[in-house]
Amino acid sequence: MVGTVGLENLSIDEIPNQVPQCPAVTYVAPLFVDTDVIEPGKAAWVFVTQNTIVTTGETYPFEMKVVSLQSLKVTKTLNLGTTEEWNLTISSTNQLEPVTFGLHPTATDNYDFEYDAFVQTPIQGKVILILDEVYATEINNERTTWNLSVGVPAGSTANLTWNSSRIPADVNLTLDGTDMKAENYLLLGEGSHSFVIVATGLPESGLFANLSPDIVELGGNFTLSGTAYGQNAINIVIVAPKGSDGNKIDGMGAGIYFTKAAVLSNFSYSKVIEVGTDVDIGNYLVVVLSPGRDAIYNGFAESTQVGNFESHLALEYNLTGKTQQQVCEILTDATVESPGSDDLLTALYVTVIPKHSNEFDTLFGSY
Questions:
Q1: Which of 263, 268, 85 is CA-nearest to residue 167?
Q2: Which among 224, 161, 151, 220 has a CA at the least distance from the CA of 187?
Q3: What 3 state SS string does 34-53 have?
Q4: Radius of gyration over alpha carbons of the chain, in Å?
Q5: Which of 121, 223, 244, 281 is a good FRET partner for 143, with 20 to 30 A between their CA atoms?
C-alpha cells in the first residue's frame, strides 16, 4: 500500500516495476476501484514485481515491499439477481383498495389488460392509494420505479403495510429510501403524500472488506467492516507477521486467530478486533471468507460451513509452522480454488505498532 502526505498528488505512472495485469486500486466504499493518482492523505494498493524505492522529492523517499499474495482470489465482481417475476401489495388502514406492483417477463412497461388495473373512483373519507396516477395494479417488464400517491382524509391517519417476506432475496426495494425488507409499515398523517418505489437487483455474491484504522497501537483495536452478499455470516482469519506460530492478534497465546461476524439484512457486517498489549509488531494478514450462496465451503471433504470452518480446517490441514503466504495457500485451496466453488475470499493487512508514549509527559508531567 502507498500513502501520501503533503499538498501534491502522486501519479501512479511515476512508480516503476508495476505489474501490468494488476492496475492500482483504491477503496471507495463499498468497492475497490482502479485509480491512476494518489491524492494527499489518501492511499492505494500498487502491485510491483520487486522491492521498489520511490523518491517523491529530495527528502521523502519511501520503499514499496513486494507482498507475495498471488494465489489469493480477491473477489470484486458481482452477479446481479435474476428473479424475473415478483409482485408486492401495499395496503392501508381505512383504504379504498390496495395497490400492487412488480415485474413479469411477459408484461410491458405500458398498460396490459392481463396484468394491470386502473384505480376505482375515489370515495370521500377513504385512504386512496394510486400508482403512477392511474393504477391500482401495475406490473412492468423492465421499468423498476413506481410513483406512489397516498391521500389521507382530514383528521385521519393511515398505516401502510406490506409483507416483506414476499420480496425476493435478490431484489432490493426502497420506498423513498426506506428499506422495504427491513421495515413492513409506514405511518402517515392527513394530507397528500408522494413516494418513489425503486427496485434494484442485488448481487448473488460478493465480498468486500475495509479496516478502520489500518494502523493500530498495541492495546488498541480496529474495526473490520464491509458487505457480504449471499450469506448471513462470514469467517475472519488473522495471521501474525511471523506466520501461524506468531502471537494471536488478541494476545491470547500463539497461533492463528479465528472469529466470525454476522451479516445484517442490509448485507453489511462489522467486527471490532482487540489488539493485545504484547503481540507481534508488523503487518497482520486479515482474511475474510464467505461460503457463497450454497453456504458450503467447497474444498473440504466434509460439509463445512461458517460455524465449523475453524475445526474442519484444523482437521484437514496442517497449520503448524506456516508463513502468511502458506496460510493463504491453504485457505484458497480449501475455498475459492476448489473446482466449481462459489466461495469468496478477500485479504488485507493491519499494521500493529508500538504504543505511543509522550517523552515530554514522562519527564515533566502533563497539564
A1: 85
A2: 161
A3: ECCEECCCCEEECCECCCEE
A4: 27
A5: 121
- Taking the model in full, what pTM does it have? 0.53
- Give 364's contacts (C-beta < 8 A, 6+ positions apart): none
Q: How confident is the model at residue 115 (pLDDT cuts 50, 70, 90)?
A: very high
Domain with CATH 2.60.40.2550 in the chain: 206-353
How many other C-beta atoms can be found within 10 angstroms of the C-beta atom of residue 231? 22
Separation of alpha carbons 38 and 304, rounded Å:
41
Rounded to whole angstroms, the Cα distance separating 293 from 128 reads 41
Question: Could you tell me if 138 and 132 are in contact, meaning their C-beta atoms sit under 8 angstroms apart?
Answer: yes
Give the CA diameter of the chain: 85
Assess whether pLDDT exceeds 90 at residue 342: no
| pLDDT tens profile 147-191 | 999 999 999 999 999 999 999 877 889 999 889 999 999 999 999
Count of other CB atoms within 10 angstroms of residue 260? 15
Please give the helix or strand (H or E) that residue 363 lies within, else none.
helix 359-364
Q: Please give the angle made by the CA atoms of 135, 137 and 138, to the nearest 5 degrees.
A: 80
Beta strands in 60-170 (DSSP E): 61-64, 86-92, 99-103, 117-118, 128-131, 135-140, 145-152, 158-161
Rounded Cα distance between 308 and 310, Å, is 6
- Please report which confidence band the pLDDT of residue 2 belongs to, taking 50, 70 and 90 as the band edges: low
Tell me the residue type at 41.
G
Q: Give the three-state DSSP class for 248.
A: coil
- Terminal alpha carbon distance of the chain: 38
CATH of domain 206-353: 2.60.40.2550
Asked which of 254-268, 277-291, 350-364 is least confident by mean pLDDT, the reply is 350-364
